[in-house]
Amino acid sequence: MVIRTLNDIYLDLRNKLIKENRLQADLEAREVCVCGTGIERDQFDKSRSIFMSEESAEKINALFSRLISGEPLPYIIGEWDFFSLTFKTPRGVLIPRPDTESLVEAALKATKRKTPLRVLDLCCGTGCVGIAYATQMPSVKVVLADISSDALKAAKENILMHNLSGTVYPLHLDITEGYRPEFGKFDLILANPPYIPTDEISQLDQSVRDFEPHLALDGGPDGLSFYRILSEKWKDALNPGGILLVECGMNQSEQVKAIMKQASYKMLRVYKDLTGVERVVSGRTKN
User: Fold this and answer.
1) Separation of CA 209 from chain center
2) Whole-model pTM above 0.85?
3) How confident is the model at residue 113 (pLDDT cuts 50, 70, 90)?
4) DSSP state letters, 39-76
5) pLDDT at 48 over 80
6) Domain map of the chain by residue range?
7) 91-284 in CATH: which number?
């Protein structure tokens, strides 16, 4: 048996990923090695000269095989970063993406002068949006809602991980059924709903199509079904002057604005993400 250092294994994995034209070869190789050994991320560089046991090497190789087969890295390591925070990201839950950080930023800009607030994060997934917002707004109360039991389980774990048990609360909810008075009123509704047109699901990248939950992706025939539901069935959940903020897909912002305008939302506004894509649409109810 050849005894190898962590650095030997890391460089081997990185080179294989480079040959596969993986754009994040260095990151993926590091994360697989960190997960396979249990070494803390900030100790990786200091640990590269350590000789690996056969057991650790086999574990790293098993994780790498999953990566090469197309499984997304966040599912392999079980967590992912969003808005400079780390979130548990198990299989069966949508992976947090940088694009969605624009939704948090837009929410902070829209509500920075108003506290305390009561906020509803619909289609919450891991809870990353509502939790990230709550970390920046100390007096806020946030409800994380989703129909998926896998998503709510992950959201509960993330609430605990970020010490927000008294601030953020999970709720099992089907948004298609609409608002019910027992939920109470909210000042802000956030949502990153499914927005991929049904016929386009099969054309998505393999790592998304074959591994991420279609429940969190499929937005109906035109990708806009959930925006109609949010605008029409959840307007009564907002206090006077309350804000609806939604993420949307590329080239959907004008259609989403039209849907919200039809539902009598005022002060419609579009926010761009870091790449310049119109990513978030907001509207307010009447005061």
Assistant:
1) 16
2) yes
3) low
4) --GGGTGGGTTSBPPHHHHHHHHHHHHHHHTT--HHHH
5) yes
6) 6-69, 91-284
7) 3.40.50.150
